[in-house]
Amino acid sequence: MLARIPGITGDDDESRRPLPVSGMLAAAMTLGVGLAALTTLTLIGWIAAPKGTLGSGLPGVFRTAAQVWLAAHHTGFAIPGGRVGLLPLGLMALPALLLYRAGRWMARDADLRVRLPARLPKNSPRRQATLRRRAQLVLVAQAGVSLAAPYSLLAGLIALVARNDVTQPFIGEALLSHFTLAFVCGVLATARTIGPFRSMLMLLPERVRAVTAGTAVATALLLAAGLLVVLAAVAVNFGQVRDLTQALSPGLVGGALLLLVQLLYLANAVIWASAYIAGPGFAVGSDTLVAPTGVDLHAVPILPILGALPDSGPAPAWAMAVIALPFAAGAVAGVVLVRIAPSPSYEGAPLWGLATGVTTGLAAGALAALSGGPLRGGRLAVVGPSPWEVVLSVALEVGVAAGISAGLANWLLLNRKAGRPPGRVRRVGAAGLGVLARMAGKVGLAETDSRPLPGHWLDATEADTQPIPVIRDDWMDEHASAAAEVRAQSRRRDIVDETDDRGGHVIYMDPYAWDRD
């Protein structure tokens, strides 16, 4: 049973705000700070830009800032002749950072560190740790909903205010996008309040933790490869990018704004390059395709970064080599999967590797859906990669590579730890499970009771307590042996110390009295 500390767990319950109240305050502060920052930037642009570009008067400036805030959450707009869904993902960094800081404040304000069940059923330590982890997951989810629910409702009001005759934001998308982003940031911030970033994954069960880590590694490698492809394409076609920039003649202020817009769309370009690496490629308009198998382009929007696109025609033979990158990412993900959670059977690891490929494909498909979208109507109604094609390609490529590498890594790990020759392949029995238990304790993210994470409240569980040893009467230590030898040599069991005989007193001292009952 967890100790009830006065002044922390019970005495200040009345002084703490309820979690929904803290979430509402955090959501309001996030919206206020974000809109204030964007209104200031929009006002500066309104002063520097021609009149009417960013709205007429201060109400138009605020309405434009509200529309930019909605676009930062990937909320689409309806315009005459179509809709706008191709939004810069770089804008999402501002509300994500503000929501993360607001989530940290909400967790401290509601004092979530001490809101755990004080009573756990007296069962096995493993069972108690599992119940405690579930309670923590429920608490983290409640914190995410407490921040996301009021945040999305306030976003609906902003969407109503930002409507005008030209652009009309979709209220349904505004509610969903704001809730999703706030929930994710609130969950991460609350989990970070529990302890360091490493402890976030410790809240998940071991197998789920392994698949999550493998998916994150594979996705990160795909995005890193996409970034390298974008930088290489810009370097190779830098002349075309420069010519497009000079053709626009943006001036000093316009050039700065143009550079900012391209930096905000850099995340979209990286995801498109990842889809190019995976094989499906992406489109820049209807009936267009940029893929390793070939390029078919028509007129593209005048944006300097689009000058890095290859020319239309068949792709060179070496371009097909980029398809090996998803397989390499899957191989690394399979090794990470086995290091976190080795499988006790030889056929289990490849299956979990395939599952990691499926989750990676779903993550890549979600990113592809966010990075693309229509740009008005007509020919530009299809821009970006196809989500379902990306899901199938990435799931197949990463899943096959992760299954093979996970199977090999698990096979080598089992044979090496069990001390059997590599040629003998048999199912791991009780001895193998014991080896796996000791082996998992050496893995950084594996379950272990002997190495708790220090310094935060996640560590204090009843499973960590150790019973106090009881000394039996038949135990003999070195002090008791020395006392027995002295008693055998002399009938008298006390040692007389006559160094202080002032006043005719004699002091008797027994140095082994502490060892007696």
Key attributes of the depicted protein:
517 residues; disordered N terminus
Describe what you observe in this structure:
The chain is mostly helical. The protein contains 15 helices and eleven strands. It has helices at residues 19-48, 57-72, 93-109, 125-161, 171-194, 198-202, 206-236, 238-248, 251-264, 266-278, 324-340, 348-371, 387-418, 430-442, 478-489; strands at residues 77-79, 82-84, 168-169, 283-284, 289-291, 294-296, 313-314, 375-376, 383-384, 495-497, 507-509. The strands form four sheets. The chain has a four-stranded antiparallel β-sheet with strand order 3-1-2-8. The chain has a three-stranded antiparallel β-sheet with strand order 5-6-7. Helix 1 (19-48) packs antiparallel against helix 3 (93-109), helix 2 packs antiparallel against helix 4 (125-161) and helix 11 crosses helix 12. The radius of gyration is 32 Å and the shape is flat.
Gist of the model:
This protein is mostly helical and 517 residues long. Helices cover 57% and strands 5% of the residues. The protein has 15 helices and eleven strands.
What order do the helices and strands come in, and which of them pair?
Layout: H1 19-48, H2 57-72, E1 77-79, E2 82-84, H3 93-109, H4 125-161, E3 168-169, H5 171-194, H6 198-202, H7 206-236, H8 238-248, H9 251-264, H10 266-278, E4 283-284, E5 289-291, E6 294-296, E7 313-314, H11 324-340, H12 348-371, E8 375-376, E9 383-384, H13 387-418, H14 430-442, H15 478-489, E10 495-497, E11 507-509
Antiparallel strand pairs: 1-2, 1-3, 2-8, 4-9, 5-6, 6-7, 10-11
